[in-house]
Amino acid sequence: QVQIVESGGGLVQPGGSLRLSCVGSGFTLDSSAIGWFRQAPGKEREGVSCISSSRAGGYIEYADSVKGRFTISSDNAKNTVYLQMNSLKPEDTAVYYCSRRDWNCDLDIDRYDVWGQGTQVTVSE
Hints:
- The protein is mainly β.
- The protein is about 0% helix and about 50% strand.
């Protein structure tokens, strides 16, 4: 049984912060890479960030739209990846998904094979 569960979403005002969690079961992070994606209503799902500790030396990547505001991190002992989101903007409003792929860390959505159910993030006055 391979499963991913996201949590931590909610309603925040512009400029606020949230920390999302992605907990995996049935696999270990040290054999995978984890990506965060988001999808706003009527729009394509887009990559946000990814992290890989299995790639030699480790690797982290961010989409240009979130650089300097979001930080991805992992706790392999807890099989958990976090996405700290600061300085949130209304355009960050979306359902945020966590997903797994092989060791390679990039935001090619076609390479991810297990997805969580998503957690809603709404940034609004």
